[in-house]
Structure formats: C-alpha cells, structure tokens
Amino acid sequence: MKLLKCLPVLALCLASCVDKQERSTAEDVDSEFAISYEKFTLNNGLEVILHEDHSDPIVAVATMMHVGSNREKPGKTGFAHFFEHMSFNDSENVPVGANRKMIPEWGGSRNGGTWSDGTVYYEVVPKDAFEKILWIDSDRFGYMINTVTEAALEREKQVVKNEKRQRVDNAPYGYTDEIIRKNLYPEGHPYSWTVIGALPDLQAATIDDVKEFYTKYYGAANASLVIAGDINIEETKELVKKWFGEITSGPEVEPLNPMPVTLAQSKSLYFEDNFAKLPELRMVIPTVEEYHKDTYALQILGQLLSGSKKAPLYNVLVDEQKLAPNVSAYQSSSELAGEFIFRVRANAGVDLDSVKHAIDAGLKRFENDGVSDRDLKRIKAELETGLYQGVSTVLNKAFQLVQDNEFAGDPSYITKTAKLTKAVTASDVMRVYNQYIKGKPFVMTSVVPKGQLDLAVTDAQEATVWIEDVKQNVANEEVSQGEEAEYEKTPSKHDRSEPPFGELPLFKSPEIWTSALENGLDIYGIENNEVPLVQFDITIPGGHLLDTKEKSGVATLLTDLMLEGTATKTPAELEEAIGLLGATINMYSAGEDIHITGACLSKKFNETIALVKEILLQPRWDEKEFNRLKQSLQTSLKGREANPNSIASMAYYKLLYGDNHIFSIPSAGTLQTAEAITMADLKAYYKYLTPQNASCHIVGDISESTAAAALATLNDWQGAAVTLPEQSLPETPVANTLYFIDVPDAKQSVLYIGKLALSATNPDANNLDFANEIIGGGSSGRLFQTLRIEKGYTYGAYSSVSNSLEVAPYTVRTSVRANATLKSLEIIEGMLQGYAANFTDEDVTLTKNKLLKSNTRAYESLGAKLSILQQISKYNKPHNFIETDQQELVAMTLDDYKTIINTYLNESDMIYVVVGDKATQFEDVKKLGKPVVELDIYGNVIK
C-alpha cells in the first residue's frame, strides 16, 4: 500500500454533473475534450460515478474514503494509513488472504493509498472478473470489521513499521517531512504529524481502536465509488446496488473547513542525516488549500520560478553560481491548507548559506523581470498535452473522477480547473507572488551529511525527530496468520458468495504497420485514436555497451548534452521551442541502446519531429553545458552512495559480470570514471549514432501515411552500421557466497539474491519468466506472501529475470527489518532450494490463468503499446508474439516447469548480497552457513 501526499492531478475535462441521476457531457467546452459519465447515489449515501470505455476489455474500480491522517488525534497518529493496511486482510464473505492473493491471480492489479486527506482503494481487472471485483471490493468496504483479529493487528503493525523503515528511516532526507510539519503547523493541527505517524502510537493501537475508526469513518455516505472501463451502464448500476447497497451509511462525518496557517516569524532548522551524502535546503511557506482560486496561479508561479532554463532560480543557482544540478519551486495544496516549497539538493560540499542567498537573488530577479507572455503560452501548451495524457488509461480517469467528486462535490471539476488555469494572467501570477511569497515567513531545513554541520545555514536550530531503536531481540516482533475470527455473518438479502467469471477476454495483438527509410531506419507503428496524442521512441543500438570501463558514463553524458541546445538554438531556446509545442523530448542511454523518446499532440507531430532531427543532426557541443552536466552527474553519483538499494545493486552487478564486462559498472559510471570524461570523448561517441540497425516506434493518433511523411525528413540522418564490442562473462561465475556491506545504523537490510540466467533471445526466456510467477510474481507470489503477509518482515519481496540481448540475471529483491535479516535469508534460501520439488499441477494452472488474463490490461496505455514495438524490433519477435507467447504458456507442462527451474534457478549457483548494519547483523548472517565476504559500498573486497 502506498503513502500518498495527494492523488496526482490528472488532467481530465469532464462534464458537469448535478445531484440527480443524469448522463452528461461537457457542452461548454470543445467537444473533443468531453467525456461522458453517469452519477447516481445509493440509498445508503454512496455516490457512484460510471464511465464507459470499450477500448480495452478491462475495468477499473476506485473507492475513495473521505478520511486521511487529518482525522487523527495526537497520540493516535498514523491510523488512517494503518487502517488501509488492515482493510486488505480478511472480510466476511471472502476467503482468508484472498484480497491480496486472488486479484493478481485473476490477472488484475490492486493497491491502496493514504494521504493527509483521504484513502483510496483501487483495482484494474480483466472484464471477465468485473463482478468478482465488485464482490471483493464491497466486502472489504462493508464487511471486514468483524474479521479483525489480534494476530492480524500485530502483523500489520510490523508491515507498517517496515514501510516506515524503508521509506523514512533507511532513506536520505527521510525525516525532512516530519521536521517541516512539526514546525509549519501548530501543535494539534491535522497536518502537524506525518501520514505514517509515530510508531509508538501505532504500536499502542488496539482492536477497539480499529473498530472505532471503522464505525466512525467507513460508512457508505463518507465515500465515492467510480467504475470506469468496458462496462454496460444499466447492468453495472444493478450490480452496484446489489453489492454495495447494503453497506451501512455510517454516522454523519462533520466536514473539515480549511485551516490555513500563518507564521509569526521564520524558523531555520538543521538535521544531520545518517544516509545523506549531499546537503539539501528546503523552504516552505504556508499558502492556500486545494480548489482555492489562487492555486492555479501559484502552480504556474512555481513553473516560472524554476521550471525552465530561463527561470530565475535556475539561472542563479544552477547556471551562474553552480551550486546545484537543479532547483524546484512548486505549490502543494491539500484539503485544509497549502504550501509553496523551494527545494535544492546542492552539490557536494556546498554551504547552504550560499544556496539561501542564491534563492533570494533569484526571487529578486523575478520581481524585476516580471512574467513574459511567451512563458505563459509555453506553460499552457504543456498543460494542454497533459490534459490528454490524463485520460489515456481507465485507472487515471477513475482517480480523477473519484477525487473531484469526493473533495469538490463534482466529478467534472477538472473542466473548471482547466478553464481557471487557462485564464491565469501575468498580473495574477505577480499578485499571488506578492500576496503569499514575497517577504513572508517560512520554515527552512538544512539537512546535511553526518559530520558536515558546517554546511548548515548559519544560526539554524537543531531539529528533533523520533528515531526507532531496532532491537536485536525479535521475540516481541514475531507474528503469524493466527486464528481466524469467530463471528456471525452480517445478514444480507443477496447471496454474497463468490460470483463466477464472465467470458474470458484474451489479448489480441494490435495491427502493426512497418516501413523503412532510405537511410536504413526501420519504422514500426500502431494507430490508436482514443486520445489525440502520439508517443514515439527512436532506439539506436549501443548505449553503455560502447562505453569503455575507464570512461563509463560517456553515453549518459552525451545524451544529456544533446538536449542542451542545437547549433542554432541555445539550451533555453530549444527548451522553449519544445514547450511551445506542448511536447516532451527526452534522450537517454540504457545498457544496450540509446533512446530518443517523446510525446506530443498529434497535430504537433511534424514540428516535434523537426526538433528531433535538429537535436540529432546539429549538436551544439556547448562547453559550459558540458561542465554543468558533468558536475550534475558527479553530484548524482555521490548521492547514490546514500541509497542502500543502489549500493546493493551496484555490488550485485559487479560481482555477477566480473572485471571484464561493461555491465559490471553502472551505465552512469562512477565518480572516478565521470571525472575522466572530456568533451572529446562525447564527440568520439557521437559517430556511433547512426540509422543503420536503429528503429523508430510510433504509437497514437496518427496514420501510417502521415507518420511516414513526417519521418521522411530523417533521411538526412546518415552513417554506417556500428559493430558492438564482444563482452566476456566470467569463466568461473561467483556462486554460493554471501557478500556483506555495512551501512551503520540501518533499520533494514537490503537483500539481492540471484545469478546470471539467460538472454531474452534464448528459447527458454519466456518459460523462465512463466516459471518465476509462483515464487516472485507480485503480491500473490510466495516470497511476498511469506515474508510480508505471514511473517511481517518486509514491505515487499519479489523476483524477476531481466530482459537484454546479453545474458541477464535472475534476482530476488527485498528489504527486511534489520533484526529479521537471518530469518529472511533462511526463508528465501529454503524457498529457492525447494522450488522445483514443490511446484505442482495447481501452480501450472494458476500461472496460465494469471498471465493470460493479465495481458488484457498489460498493453492498455500508449507507453505499453510502444513497448510491444520495441520488443519486436530489438529481439526480432513476430508481430503477434504476445499471442504466440500465450500459446507457449498454455502448452507448458509440470515437467517443463521443473526442468526450467532446475536449469536456471539452482540456489547453490546464486550469490547473496546483504546491505545492512554490521554491528548487529554481520555475525548473524554467518549462521546461514555460506562463505561470507565483506565489501565496501563500492563493491570492493575489504581485506
């Protein structure tokens, strides 16, 4: 489950709706922006919004409860989020554990999120499981409280603790939110504590607390339900009445009025962060709540201050004074109050006093220069594209409909949002700047690496946070499934047993067109007219493979530099040209290729491709930008040293690929390799960017003829094919060894376990992917079910095999609480050792059904359709490979699965990488019985 600050503001234009039942479309906006829906209210007060979308055989369901951490009381913080976890356990008419396990097995996905103001539960399932999801979702909503047991309560406490350790305690800058909330909001204000709350409060929670919270806030009248997708409106209305109509209304929940805050004076605080490697400054100024008329101008203000290369904060901090690789300023609004935030993660060793002075200078420049109409035009063009991107999936539609209905009282409020944003003027922006930002008190945090207090802002006061002491004795933290609750089922006039599946909708490959340019560039396309958008990707073979070990990171720096202007456009002019189209263009290096990607309105495709051509063929080779990007890369690489997951990943790949393979070094390089890179290295690499063996993929609202005509301009791109260097794998792979990396005081241990397996072109690749599903495929996998659901050791545990032309690893990944490190390792080891022997005919059937059904939703978005084309071109797959893969899956027998597992997943061939607290865990992990080697954070053996 996710902790959310707020749901993403997904740009939709929806029709307005009144309380009475009605169908409606947006009549007062351009018809191409309209979307139909129907809203009605059940007798119990549940407001229901239905939207039909037959483009894919899937359905999204989102239930919004109008209760977040702002309804909690001091001493009982974190409860809204904790209750979200509890809700996913058991309910009266659904088998134990089914909520987390069955939905993935139906080919669906599910999750929940809690933030300050609300809690949302959501699922996306194939159409055949539609009534099943109404059954399971309504049972979770209205029929779960009687099933709560002491064992379930204690287990979820451990899971939430693990979530906090992973997201807060074991993460750089993880405590900053707590510091800001404590000092921005007065004691007792609903935003004065974090969403996850205080762990002592959580530990003290009782079953009576759970029941009281449910009774008070989980009534039908305190919620909204949205169902979007391949549905029939009239049939769905009857199903909703059946499954949700008997849920109790609940007591009336008194609405909370806005509670904006003011500061009498500024507060400056510092904190020494055990994980941070870079100093970070944040300034937070109280502003206005969500849906306030001034939020739109404040959002645009943030973009104007920091969102482009012409922005004054960027100019001063990044371009001129070179204090940081970037800067952000943005408005963050919630139900009761809002904040305007300045955030700068500075370069290593930068004094945060200089950052504060630079922010002041940037704001002064903004005051002097004002707002240009051209910048407003650019931002609004970008928002127009975002409008359509927000309607590209049924889940995004469901999110926006349900949020605006519950918090604005109108599922179509985004129509008003779009109009109000479009109406913002330069004078509006200057007015909100002067009213809310200029000269106003703020809360400022200086978070600095441990031992670098001299970098904090002068005269800052030490911030206090509560830090958990993870005891090595775990007796009081051991949990289990426990006994099922004893209760009488709630009476119902309907049969609330599991409904049957509908007709199985199998995925059918979309129609794919192909073409080629005279210069050798292959083109693959899928026409899709759901929204007037186009997404594209040009893939050029090479990437990190063409780096040298001594100068790894050249490809990464080159792709970054090529977006910093062209021969005829400065970096700011290129950025503005892209923005005025409402387009995005990105370029990046991956392990085996370089990508130029983008998205735009279909009517802007020709102009967008013209800019792509200019970027590709007329690099600027700007020395100033090269130096800035190199510094930015070094800052990023330094920051990577603070992340236990990154430390584990880097060591893992270094061990697997050995000294002679380029993949033993991250594609971004290291601090040492980055330092050695020169502009000449980038120019030398540039000659590898040729159209031979490259491919262009295009998906969206554009025909083959229109796309081909626009792409023909790329025939000016010339160059011979490039021979990729041969890479050598270790003759004697590392195996059956545990490697330990010390991160002092870590509250969790990061585990990476695995071995090199196979290439994506290996005939066994699909079968290994299928075979992994039972052990590590999502929340229904054995790893997740055992380590999280049964034991409460982790927030999540998964396994997968990577896709690449090179031999790729099979990897088990998880982060477990520190004092459960050995127990977790023992469980994973035993699970891997017995996987083949314990694989059953039931597992064969389950894998088949799960994967066949999941394909119906796996390729809904434009990005997912783009992935189909990329797989076809890179791995030389047939156009209907998804259908042939399905046939391969159906044909697999139990013996096939066992053979694959024994061939590729032999546990004794695997290595174990553990990143954690040496003082408490090093001696313990030796009890696993494997040779133990200690490494430093760079993956070097400590002798």
TrEMBL record:
UniProt biased composition (Basic and acidic residues): 487-498
Protein keywords: Hydrolase, Metalloprotease, Protease, Zinc
Q: What Pfam families does its record include?
A: Peptidase_M16, Peptidase_M16_C
Q: Please report the stretch or stretches of sequence annotated as the Peptidase M16 C-terminal domain.
A: 205-383, 677-851
> Per the database record, which ranges form the Peptidase M16 N-terminal domain?
48-172, 530-657
Listed Gene3D superfamilies: Metalloenzyme, LuxS/M16 peptidase-like
InterPro entries found in the cross-reference section: Metalloenz_LuxS/M16, Pept_M16_N, Peptidase_M16, Peptidase_M16_C
- The record's region (Disordered) falls at 477-501
Family per record? Belongs to the peptidase M16 family.
Record's protein name: Pitrilysin family protein
